[in-house]
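User: Study the fold:
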Amino acid sequence: MSLWLLIPAAGIAAQSHSAQLLATARSHIAARQWDSADAALSEALETAPYLMDSAWTYVWRGVLEYQQGRQQLARLSFRRAFALHPDPGIHSLDTISTELAALFDREFRANRTYSTWDLDQPARWITRPDFIGPARGEAIVRMVVDTSGSVEERSIEVLTIPDSTFVVPLKQMMKGVVFSPARVGGKPVRSVVAYRIDIVPPR
């Protein structure tokens, strides 16, 4: 049975309408008809049947805003797209502008979280911290390191620790740790890291 036969007719119609609106918006952007492009994108967002359709719409709204010289709004639209889908699958923006493609790529790398097996180079401590405790031991901590090498505070998880009273001070310490960020293709990316932290008694 054809896949199309498994999709309700209303769903096919909604997809088709959404695709038509995006195609119309792209044509208006190419012709520099900003108001018409904005109207088509607004309708596309209101009628998008699936999250991916909304993600595509936000990407093209970002393109529109970039073309109008509003880079901050373009970045916000790209971030909204990535919040809906980590990879909307749009990779040809360099045919519009290499600077636009570079902006999209920076936002993509800053918002996607890479796992160890996706990396060319993992994040590494610049200075490995030791945690002061009453007795020697170890803790295992998992966190997200951003493209600047900073730890994202809300991501810190203490997986194992010999005494639960150490969790809060350990998280506090981890907020200040600086990394050399992970890289893919020579460019910094967000990544998930897990490390063993030594707990050392005071001297």
